[in-house]
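lol forgot to send this yesterday, sorry. struct tokens for the thing we talked abt
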């Protein structure tokens, strides 16, 4: 692959920023990087002084013409843009419009303008946990699992992923085949993770304590944002040479992060920052948590005309947190030589430092 011009819809988000920085640090053939996002970050300005031509484009993936203009002339597109909402902040229609129609617009832009390689950030949620609460224990890309969803977010990710995979092989302008690939991160953590910041602030408000709501036995797969970004860069690099093997494939994003409950895993970073998790088992019975989650959903609906009430606890987040979902796979290693760039110890240290930075900035 010669000189590379890459496009990154969603490049200003939590994952997107790490993908942008990883591309600039570790892709020597990159000559131009276009960052397309609804909300451009101020940090982009510091990137424009380097050897790579960095272009920040403010735009909306739901607007096909804006996407086409941004994609035209690129060699590869890394599509991380999305509405990551499981808290009821956006309507189901908006989630669908951004995540599904927006992805369709990215695909069509590649076809119409001749971009041959598309990497899509999918999600573990395409698989599960399903509405029946079936555990997915150390599963891989081929593990049979009844992927049944009702929530708008997982539904939108599953639809978008299917569009991307079905587009593999379509002829783009110029007659060459489009080569697509979807990456499925499990719960991403690291510098910039808003939910981790929310948990930290919640703990500060509660006198340095968080109260266990989920049994420690319920394990949730997590992956460090730097390793997810690295996997995206590797796929963007290898997709051309390994098109026959990788085209139309899905890959879970994984690293050496330990399998723990969502709350215990968060405490790996919050405990060194002075918080403690109260209770070796859930302090409230599950039926009461279900009631409180339903009450939050009712309050959100009643208050919507006045204000946005979107707490962490709602029926969906409780169900997901309470269902084991862990992956164990090496498909990415087998197909394109992926090895995590950051060890668990390094990932943990970097995340702790970031939370401590949140601590100092909020004092
Ligand atoms: N955060 C997580 O734990 C996981 C995230 N993912 C996926 O990774 C991707 C990135 O997620 P995060 O970085 O966590 O989310 P984020 O919300 O931090 O970033 C999403 C980015 O997309 C942009 N965006 C949203 N709507 C847009 C639109 N209409 N037009 C253009 N840009 C738009 C946002 O401005 C933001 O910069 C998403 O596709 C998400 O589904 C997958 C698995 C886990
Ligand atoms: C209030 C308690 C029940 C608390 O434990 C709730 C935690 C809850 C906010 C998180 C538990 C599992 C998370 C999701 C999981 O990591 C999978 C995801 C994949 C994505 O593509 C986007 C984010 C998320 C849905 C993630 C969101 C936060 C949780 C539901």
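and heres what i got for the seq, position by position
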């Amino acid at each position: 692959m010669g000189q590379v011009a890459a496009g990154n819809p969603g490049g200003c988000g939590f994952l997107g920023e790490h993908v942008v920085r990883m591309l600039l640090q570790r892709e020597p053939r990159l000559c131009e990087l276009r960052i397309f996002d609804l909300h451009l970050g101020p940090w982009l300005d510091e990137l424009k002084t380097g050897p790579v031509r960095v272009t920040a484009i403010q735009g909306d993936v739901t607007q096909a013409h804006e996407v086409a203009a941004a994609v035209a002339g690129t060699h590869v597109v890394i599509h991380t843009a999305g509405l990551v909402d499981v808290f009821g902040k956006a309507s189901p229609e908006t989630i669908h419009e951004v995540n599904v129609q927006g992805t369709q617009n990215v695909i069509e832009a590649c076809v119409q303008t001749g971009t041959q390689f598309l990497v899509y950030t999918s999600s573990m949620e395409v698989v599960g946990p399903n509405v029946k609460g079936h555990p997915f224990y150390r599963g891989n890309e081929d593990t049979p699992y009844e992927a049944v969803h009702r929530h708008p977010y997982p539904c939108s990710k599953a639809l978008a992923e299917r569009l991307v995979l079905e587009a593999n092989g379509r002829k783009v302008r110029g007659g060459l085949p489009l080569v697509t690939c979807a990456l499925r991160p499990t719960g991403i953590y690291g510098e910039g993770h808003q939910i981790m910041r929310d948990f930290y602030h919640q703990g500060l408000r509660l006198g340095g304590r968080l109260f266990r709501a989920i049994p420690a036995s319920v394990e949730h797969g997590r992956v460090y944002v730097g390793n997810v970004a690295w996997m995206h860069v590797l796929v963007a690099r290898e997709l051309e040479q390994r098109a026959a093997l990788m085209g139309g494939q899905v890959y879970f994003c994984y690293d050496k992060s330990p399998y723990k409950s969502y709350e215990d895993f968060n405490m790996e970073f919050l405990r060194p920052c002075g918080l403690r998790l109260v209770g070796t088992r859930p302090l409230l019975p599950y039926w009461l948590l279900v009631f409180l989650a339903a009450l939050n959903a009712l309050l959100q609906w009643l208050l919507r005309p006045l204000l946005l009430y979107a707490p962490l606890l709602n029926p969906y987040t409780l169900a997901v947190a309470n269902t084991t979902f862990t992956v164990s796979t090496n498909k990415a290693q087998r197909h394109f030589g992926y090895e995590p760039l950051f060890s668990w110890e390094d990932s943990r240290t970097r995340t702790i430092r970031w939370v401590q930075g949140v601590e100092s900035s909020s004092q």
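The pocket of NAI (ligand 1) is lined by residues 9-10, 12-16, 37-39, 60-62, 80-84, 98, 102, 121, 123, 157, 185, 187-188 (CB under 6 Å). anyway ping me if u want another try
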